[in-house]
Design a protein that fits this description.
319 residues, alpha+beta, oxygen-dependent coproporphyrinogen oxidase, eight-stranded antiparallel sheet, 11 helices
């Protein structure tokens, strides 16, 4: 829906706060929310710019380890939403993820139920959580089209139903995005309702490590960090990333970034600051209608090599 389909620009009154408020209302219909310990520290965040407001909310609930939202509103300029929900390690639920960056020129959107386990390697996990959800991406794939090439590293944290799109910031597009956000979040809440607590210590430990790996990646490579650093300073931005946005990175596990992602190691033992070591690929949606990974015709050789083993195990063929 890149053309906007009418409705004009979003205007000065646009805000992602409606997304947050309705999502919290829907959550409270299903479970009891309590303030998360991180809420007190980050409830009031002062920015370096008078025209910018940061709103941070965080909660926990039975089955939900962390439900948090960060909204940034820059008057007549930038609107940002970072909304996520993480289950307790006793459940292998996907991670609800909604990231939106809207400027007067465009909106960059990622909306997904991020898999706890790579769906190209873990077919059972894909079948368990995504097989019945494919109609959702079919519903929105034309309205919210694939946004172009993404990094191969990022793709392993996306599910077959991910919405990755770049849109004109029109009211019509905003309404479609709101509809998709609520559809996806209600699906996540339903999965949460149905989730049965794991009793195997081994499986709980695996879930905990998988979530820690995800948090470690996001905390190190979060694309929103430069904006946060500009708005609140380097020290406060680091605290916000590690203690609020990706809280758990310092408590769910002890493995450092390079133990999970050794390809980013530099000769001096530090982490390569590059966002991607593989490079960007996947000009079009790299999953078929059943959620199986198939790659695409523009996949780079390096990215293709990285995924070929996974495709073989998954019983699919790349384009």
């Amino acid at each position: 829906m890149s053309g906007g389909g009418g409705g004009g620009g979003l205007g000065a009154g646009f805000s992602y706060q409606k997304f947050v408020h309705v999502a919290l209302e829907q959550t409270r219909l299903r479970t009891a929310l309590a303030p998360h310990p991180s809420q007190e520290k980050f409830k009031f965040i002062k920015t370096n710019e008078d025209n910018t407001v940061l709103n941070a909310l965080s909660f926990s609930a039975p089955k939900i380890r962390l439900l948090r939202s960060l909204a940034i509103e820059q008057k007549n300029s930038v609107q940002v939403l970072d909304f996520a929900a993480f289950s307790e390690p006793e459940y292998d639920l996907p991670i609800f993820c909604a990231n939106a960056f809207t400027s007067p020129a465009r909106s960059i959107i990622v909306l997904d139920l991020n898999p706890l386990y790579d769906t190209t390697e873990h077919e059972d996990y894909r079948e368990k959580y995504y097989r019945n959800l494919m109609p959702h991406i079919h519903k929105y794939s034309e309205l919210l089209p694939w946004g172009g090439k993404i990094t191969g590293e990022s793709l392993r944290f996306f599910s077959p139903i991910v919405i990755w799109t770049i849109l004109e910031p029109t009211e019509a597009n905003h309404q479609v995005l709101y509809s998709a956000f609520m559809d996806y979040y209600k699906v996540w809440l339903e999965l949460m309702d149905e989730a049965v607590q794991e009793i195997s210590v081994e499986k709980i430990d695996r879930n905990r490590e998988a979530q820690h790996k995800y948090l470690t990646w996001r905390a190190e490579k979060d694309p929103g960090y430069p904006l946060l650093k500009k708005l609140i300073g380097e020290c406060a931005a680091k605290d916000l990333v590690r203690e609020f946005l990706f809280e758990g990175v310092d408590s769910l596990g002890t493995k450092p970034f390079l133990q999970y992602f050794p390809e980013y190691a530099q000769k001096d033992g530090t982490v390569n600051k590059k966002r991607s070591m593989i490079g960007k690929s996947f000009e079009s949606r790299p999953w078929d209608a059943h959620g199986r990974f198939i790659g695409d015709a523009t996949t780079s050789d390096l990215a293709a090599t990285a995924f070929v083993g996974k495709r073989d195990r998954d019983g699919t063929r790349g384009g």
